[in-house]
Each structure stands twice: as structure tokens, then as C-alpha cells.
Amino acid sequence: MSAPTLALIGCGAVAEAFYVPALRKRPEVAHSLIVIDPDRSRAQALRERLGAAAALTDYREVLHRISGAMVLTPHHLHCPMALELARHGVAVLCEKPLADSAAEVDAIVAAGHTHGVPIMVNQTRRLFPAAREVRRLIADGALGKLREIRFELGAPFDWPAATPAYFRGGRGVLFDTGVHVVDLVCWWLGGEPEVLDYADDSRGGTEAVARVRLRLHDVVADIHLSWLTKLRNAYRIVGERGAIEGGAYEWASFQLKGRKMRASRSWQGYEDFVAVLLDNFVDVIGGRSEPLVSAADVRPAIAVIDECYRRRRLLDEPWHDAWQGLFPEARLAAHG
To answer: In this predicted model, which residue has the larger pLDDT, 43 or 272?
Structure first.
């Protein structure tokens, strides 16, 4: 069975870290692949590493030649590229976050339906065996009636980004790493929570620290995110009959009512999850499978994040302005 001709759009850090290892184990896909990046030398280098068919700088040149495309570009390009690809009958596997708003997700879903092509999203943490087992336990009532979810995810930003796009547009840690957490909370709860409160440290720029409070029915979810400091990187889900606790990066295990549970031992690294997603993408294009995570699936999380930004308030940072009282001359000099 021949592999479909795919395009990989964006040859930056995501491609290097996750997609290249998976593609190198799938030469039948890699050898027919077209790699695309505005930086021709970067695209050509990746083509040589994978033994791919071609390296180009503009994906529009191949819209008529490809069956599917992996969109690994900066966040602000995800929605317009997914829309254009779908409208040309090209299946899409897009990195998170898919779009800025629920309305944009709706437009992408509609384009996929109209032109008969699947739109998939790499929400990696949904693939974690531990996360999937947690969802099953919640649905089965293992904790009884849920009361609260707490999730902390934070570390100093050290992603080897190829462009400064992460720090443009006023959307930072919530839109980047936060989308993983918000999506998991929506998925675990089975709906779109109400935003009770959102605060960050953006002060007119791009936030590096954010706190979110959500509620769905009687369950309150508190989320703490940071690009500045390492947090506990863990979650706790509390119900009337006990609690589930786990590490944010522990994909194989968690604790249920104080007892360690193992969901799987088969995963070795993040590239394994990308491999699963890539195989699913090929099978979906061939009509042999359903998407593991579709565009419609991520709509609740995108809607929540957009609402957070609409109602953002300044995070309480009493230390931030303390220097104004201590060193008024320095403040005057700084502001002219």
C-alpha cells in the first residue's frame, strides 16, 4: 500500500524534536514528503535528513500535489493555513493551538466538512495512557461526584524556537503550554467550562504567568501556569470518594486514592505519541480510521482561552511596583 503524498510545513523546533524522529522510522512516508519553510536552507537540510522528495519555501506551490499537510508553523499561522489547505481539499494535521477563537474553529470545521477532508490537531496529552485512564475513571464515577481540579504547569521558557513568534501578539503561556492543560480539563469534564476568573502578568504585552479559574456544573478547576519558574507540574482531581493525583509529564502512571496505578509501559518519549498521531493521520486520509483528535474536539478549550483573554485582569504582583516608593528618583529618570 503506497503512502499518501504529504507536506510538512514549518521546519523549526517542533519538526526537529518530534516529527523527524517519527518520520525517520517511516521511510515510506518520508520519501514522498515535501518539506516547506520560508528559510530555504532549513527546508533543504531537513529534506536531506529525511530523504524527502522536495524542499520548497511556499506551500501554495504544492496544493494540487498533496493529500495532507502537517502544519508546524508559529501559532498565528495555524488557522489561515488550515483553512486554505482544507478549501483545496487537503487533509490537515495541525499543531496546537488550532485557532484563536471558537468562531475560527467553527470555520475550519465547516471547511473540512464542505470539502470532505479531515482536520486533526496534535493535543499530545490526550494521547497519554494516564490521561486517558483518568478520563475513564471520572466517567465511570470512580471518584463519585467531582468537586475540584487543580493543575500546575510551569518551567523557565527554554524552547529552542526558530522565530520570536512566541512573544508577539499578546498571547503567551496560556496560549502555548496552557492550551494543553485547558484542553485536558475540558476533555476530562466533558464540556466547556465557564470562566470565573483570569489574571496574568502581561501589562499590555505577552503574559509569562497566568492563573485561571473555571467551573463546569459543580466542579471548579484552578490552573496555574508559568514561563518564569518551575512549578509542581502536577494535577489533583478531588471527588467525594477520593482523589486522583499525577505528574504533568508522567504519561504512564498516576495515583488513585493514594495507590499508584500504571496505565501503560509502552511509551518511551514524546516522539512516540507523534508517531501514533502520524500513523492515524495516514490511516484517516486512507479512510481506514477516525481522527484521534479532531478540530471539533478542541473547540471547548479554544473558546475558554479566548474568553480568558477577553476578560484578562492584572495578576496581583505587590512586589512589582514597590520600587516606585523606594526609589522615586530612579522611576522619574526611567520615565523621563
So the answer is: 43
